[in-house]
């Protein structure tokens, strides 16, 4: 009717655990756990940070090149241009292109969005109003 009760009866369904005795102290020292955590965090930073830096560098170069084309087309009288990423601006969050006049005044030429792309210039002349 019933089985004989012995020490390992709770492990009958899992024979690989037969004879297992839990340890009272942790298997790894707190110092080793801290070292392992630091190594894991440094490894993750080492994997993620280069990708972020490459993405930001590429976006910056694209924004500078696109802004130069927009400034040459839409504001040929400008002495310079400025492409910068802005969290708060009249054009919204993202990359904005400004034409810089001789006196230093900046005029928004084009809002380029979160991910700047190549310049899309009109093929026909533009009327300035």
Protein traits:
about 130 residues, alpha+beta, three-stranded antiparallel sheet, 3 strands
Q: Give start-end ranges of low-pLDDT stretches.
A: 1-5
Number of strands: 3
Find the structural class using helix and strand composition.
alpha+beta
Question: Strand order within the widest sheet?
Answer: 1-2-3
β content, as a range?
A: 15-25%
Q: What is the rounded distance between the termini?
A: 99 Å
Shape: rod-shaped
* Helical run tally: 1
The ordered string of helix (H) and strand (E) elements is: HEEE
Quote the average pLDDT.
86
Q: What does the model show?
A:
This protein is of the alpha+beta class and 129 residues long. It has a domain at 27-113. The chain is 35% helix and 17% strand. The protein has one helix and three strands, in the order αβββ. The chain has one helix at residues 30-74; strands at 80-86, 94-100, 106-113. The chain has a three-stranded antiparallel sheet with strand order 1-2-3, covered by helices on one side. The N and C termini lie far apart (99 Å). Residues 1-5 have low confidence and may be disordered.
